[in-house]
Amino acid sequence: MLSGKQVVREIYRRLRSVDVLTTPMALIDQTFRTQSFLRGSGWLESYRRRIPVAFGHPVPFYTYGAIGFLEQRIDPSLSVFEYGAGYSTLWWAARTKTVVACEHDPSWFQRMTAMVPANVQLIQHDLVPGGDYSKQAAAFVSDIVVVDGRDRVNCAKACLPGLSERGVVVWDNSDRERYRDGYNFLKDRGFRRLDFAGPGPVDFWPWMTSVFYRDGNCLNI
Question: Structural domain boundaries of the chain?
Answer without folding.
Answer: 4-40, 64-213
